[in-house]
Design goal:
alpha/beta; seven-stranded mixed β-sheet; 17% helix
Length: 406
């Protein structure tokens, strides 16, 4: 068993389901438009006023009153034989009977500085003082497009730039969203380097920037990673100080006296949800709920295993906290080649794949574990294939979790 020394080992499907269902949606909160992108809309966005607010010009032209010809004026209230030049969307002066279009009018300038406008006969296309627009034409009436309180965007939608645009156009300065989870990251280990190449028996930290970025891509708010030596006292202190909804640790998840995550969880009286998953890579991932309601996800220090843990546990946990609708199923593709074998026969294999449409079928090209820390395949992947035990051969149909928007 690839999870030797762990308690309550789950299959990948079970672990993914637990992470998807163990958390309740966080409370609603008001957010400014500039900080709401990517969150889930908690309340519908409604119009704040009628659209249009008042009777407005539906076309460019002249607001006219009575019969023509009309003398151009700038009065706020029209009298018979008067007109005001208007553009589409302009509020109309009082006593406007219709809006005469530019194309259907002819203006005449007089020596005294006044300007009159007349309609054009539709048959002769000549100015005709008797021609006038039909009463009410060219006018958008108050509330014609939407009354006050009309639905613009329903609750439950992810806030996109287009949604932000319509909210701003409707006059909103902020909207009600499901509060996105705040996630703290603790990178454990004294031998990790924060910059430069591996040297002197120390290796470069490949996860400190990755985990917050992954959290942000999932719709959470990832705090910059904190680096800490792997000691129980320091880990307890960091967990106690973290004012977050979720804590993610990297490293120190293997059973044994030199790794302290499990010891600290037991000292804190955490409720264990997942202690090991039958998966390659990432078997030693864990998930627990602290007595104060915060969640802790323990990711292995090996970069491939940590990425597997992000996909398996972190993504569904954040989705549940932020109120995203549960994903009932994943898309599938036909394997174009065999995937690497899992470490043990009962393991699910998470295999980075490149997707391609071939003869109207979605096919998956498994990518090799190569490059620094074996991450070349993950770096080039469109998705991660979820290969169940006993599968993974050319022609098998497997589900996959997308990694890019493609």
């Amino acid at each position: 068993m690839s999870t030797y020394g762990l308690d309550g080992v789950l299959s990948w499907t079970q672990a993914h389901h637990v992470a998807s269902t163990c958390a309740r949606q966080l409370p609603d909160t008001y957010a400014r438009l500039d900080e709401a992108a990517g969150s889930i809309l908690a309340q519908p966005i409604l119009t704040l006023s009628a659209d249009p607010v008042v009777d407005s010009a539906a076309i460019n032209g002249y607001a006219v009153c009575g019969e023509g010809p009309w003398r151009i004026t700038d009065e706020a209230t029209l009298r018979p034989h008067q007109a005001v030049r208007v553009r589409t969307g302009d509020p109309l002066p009082a006593h406007t009977d219709a809006v005469l279009s530019i194309a259907g009018s002819a203006a005449q300038h007089h020596g005294d500085g006044t300007v009159t406008v007349a309609g054009i006969d539709e048959l002769t296309r000549l100015p005709d003082e008797r021609a006038r627009p039909e009463f009410g034409s060219g006018i958008s009436r108050e509330g014609e497009f939407a009354p006050s309180g009309a639905l613009l965007v329903p609750a439950g939608r992810t806030v996109t730039p287009s949604i932000l645009a319509i909210a701003a156009a409707a006059g909103h300065d902020g909207i009600e969203i499901v509060r996105p989870p705040v996630v703290g990251v603790i990178v454990l280990g004294t031998s990790l380097l924060s910059q430069g190449q591996s040297r002197g028996g120390r290796v470069r930290d490949a996860l400190g920037n990755v985990v917050p970025a992954f959290v942000a891509a999932c719709g959470g708010r990832g705090n910059p990673a904190v680096r800490a030596p792997d000691t129980a006292d320091l880990l307890l202190s960091e967990i106690d100080d973290a004012a977050v909804d979720v804590i993610i640790t990297t490293g120190s998840t293997a059973p044994g006296p030199d790794n302290h995550v499990r010891q600290v969880m037991r000292d804190l009286g955490a409720h264990w949800l997942i202690d090991g998953v039958a998966v390659t890579p990432g078997a030693q991932m864990l998930l627990a709920k602290l007595p104060d309601g915060r969640f802790l996800v323990g990711l292995p220090g090996d970069p491939q295993s940590a990425l597997a843990g992000l996909v398996t546990l972190v993504a569904p946990l954040i989705a549940a906290l932020r109120g995203a609708p549960p994903l009932r199923s994943y898309q599938s593709a036909v394997l174009f080649a065999d995937t690497p074998a899992p470490e043990f026969a009962e393991d699910t294999r998470l295999a980075p794949i490149r997707l391609e449409m071939l003869d109207a079928a979605q096919v998956a090209h498994p990518l090799a574990d190569a490059g620094p820390a074996g991450l070349s395949g993950w770096a080039q992947a469109d998705a991660v294939g979820v290969v169940p035990p006993g599968a993974g051969f050319r022609g098998d149909v497997v589900q996959y979790i997308a990694l890019t928007s493609r």
